[in-house]
Amino acid sequence: MCRRGPGRTGLRQKVYAGHAVRRLREKLGLKQGELAQRLGVSPSYVNQIESNQRPLTASVLIAISRTFAVDITTFGAEDLDRLVADLREVTADPLFSDLGLGLQDVKAVANLSPAFAHAFLRMHVALRRTAEWRASLDDMLTAGVPPRADEAKLIPYEEVRDFFHYIDNYVDSLDRAAESTAIALGLLDRADPAGAFAGHLAHRHGVTVELGHADPTAPLSQYDPRLRRLTLSGVLSAPTRAFRMAATIAQLEHADLVAETVASARFRSQTAADICRLALFNYFAGAVMLPYRRFLDLARSLRHDLDRLVLETGASLEQVCHRLSTLQRPGAKGVPFYFAKVDRAGNITKRHSATRFQFARHGGACAAWNAHEAFEMPGRTLVQLGEMPDGVRYICLARAVTAPPLRHGGPVRAFALGLGCEVSFAHDMVYADGLDLKTAPVAPLGVSCRICPRRDCDLRAFPPLDRDIRIDENVRDIIPFTIS
After folding, report:
1. How far apart are CA 8 and CA 335, in angstroms?
2. For the whole model, what pTM was predicted?
3. Dist. CA 351–CA 170, nearest whole Å
4. For the segment 56-110, what is each residue's pLDDT rounded down to a tens digit?
C-alpha cells in the first residue's frame, strides 16, 4: 500500500492551498460567506485560508471533500512546488538580477496567484525565444542566409510539455476510456495485445494491419484512411507494433475526447494543439496496453521491479517506465514517479514528473544525476540516493538502452531512462532493499548549474546566474571561481 511521504498532501501536515479553495469557490459561483456557511466555518476563516494566512485543517479538508465531492489530494502542494521551482529558474535570469528576487518572493506569487505565475513563465519563454531569434537573425544576415518566419518552432513543444507537467502526466477521461477498451478486448487475461488490437481494427473499423519490410527509409507506421490500411515497418519491435496499433484505435475511436482535452488546454498555436493531440493518442496507447488498475496492482505486487514488469506485461522498458509515471488517478494513486529519457549529449528528450523532482526548463541536467553514468554500464539498473537543494531525497534509477543501427554504417541509437521517487516510498521499491537510507552516500543533485545554490560541487559547469563570483588569479582549484 502506498503511503504519502513528507511534504505531500496528507491530514497530519499543514496545507496552504488558498488558490485551490478560491478556484473551487469561483467555479461553484459562491461568495466567501456562502462557502463558509456550507463548510460550517466563519467567513473570516475562509478569507484567511484563501490568502494563505491560515492552513487548511483536516476537518475543513474533510468537509470540502464531503460537501463538494472533491478529491482532497487536489489541494496538495505538488503543483506549487513545481511552479516555485520554475519561477526560481526564470528569476535567475540576469535580466532580474537587480531586483533581488528571493525564494519567498516567488513562493508568494505562486501561492497567491498561480495563474499570474504561469503567465509570467509563458512571457519569459517568448522573450527568450525572441532574443534567440534576434541573435540567429544577425548570424543569418551576416552569412547571407535569408531569414525564415518559423523561429518559434520549439515553443509549441515547451507549451505541451508544461501542459502535461502541471496535470501530473495523468489524463483521467482518456485513461478510463483506455481501461474500458482493454477490458472489452479481454486484455486483462491475455498477453497478446497486438493480436487483440489487429482483430479489433479489422472487425470494428475494417482496417487491415500489414507488416512491411525492414526498410529504414520507409515510415515506421503509416495509416491510409482511404484504403483503411495501417502499415507497420518491419524494423519495429513487437511492443512498438502493438503501441502503434493502439494509437490508431485512439485516433479512430476517441478523436472527440482528445479534441475536448486539447481545447481545455487553450494552446496558443495550432502547432501546439497538433503536438498535444498526437501525445494524447500515444497516452491512450500506453494506457490500453497497460490498463490502470491491473498494472497498478501488478506494480505494487512486484514492488516496481522493472525487469519483472517487462516480462509480465510484454511491454518495453520505456513503456513500463512511462506508464509508472502516469499512475495518479484520484482515489487510486500509485507511487509518484518522475520519468525522463536522455540522449548521449545530455538532452532530455522526454520528461514527466508526478513528484517534486524538477527538470531544467532550459539547459542541461545536473551532471551528478546517474542518468549520465548509465551510458557507461548499459543493461544495468543503477540505483542512486540523491538529494535536491530543497532537501527532498529520491531513489533514482537509471538504465541505458540501445537500438541497433537501421543500416550499415548507421549510428547506434543509445539513450538512458531515468525513473525515481521520493525516499518515503522506499518500502514500495525492490531497489531499496539492502540500501540503508540513513548511512548510504547521498549524491547532491540540482536542477541545473544556472540556479543550483551548491558552492562545493566539483561537477559544476558554470556559475549560478543569481550569485556573484570571485576570481583569484593566484589560486586555481577544480572550479576556477568562488561563489559569493
Report:
1. 12
2. 0.73
3. 13
4. 777 777 778 778 776 655 555 456 777 777 787 777 666 776 777 877 888 888 7
What values do phi and psi take at 169, rounded to 5?
55, 30
CA trace torsion 239, 240, 244, 249 (10° rounding)? 20
Amino acid residing at 388: M
Q: What would the pLDDT profile of 390-416 be if each residue is shown by its tens digit? A: 788 999 999 999 887 777 777 888 999
Q: What is the Cβ-side half-sphere exposure of residue 479, based on CA atoms within 13 angstroms?
A: 17
Could you give the CA distance from residue 352 to residue 340 in angstroms, rounded to a whole number? 6
Contacts of 183 (CB under 8 A, 6+ apart): 291
Phi and psi at 328, nearest 5°, equal -125, 40
Q: How far, in Å, CA of 446 to CA of 461, rounded? A: 12
DSSP per position, 258-319: HHHHHHHHT-SSHHHHHHHHHHHHHHHHHHHHS-HHHHHHHHHHTTT-HHHHHHHH---HHH
C-alpha cell at 286: 500506453
Tell me the C-alpha distance between 205 and 209, whole Å: 11
Which residues lie closer than 8 Å to 429 by C-beta, 6 or more apart? 303, 304, 335, 395, 421
C-alpha cell of residue 122: 509563458
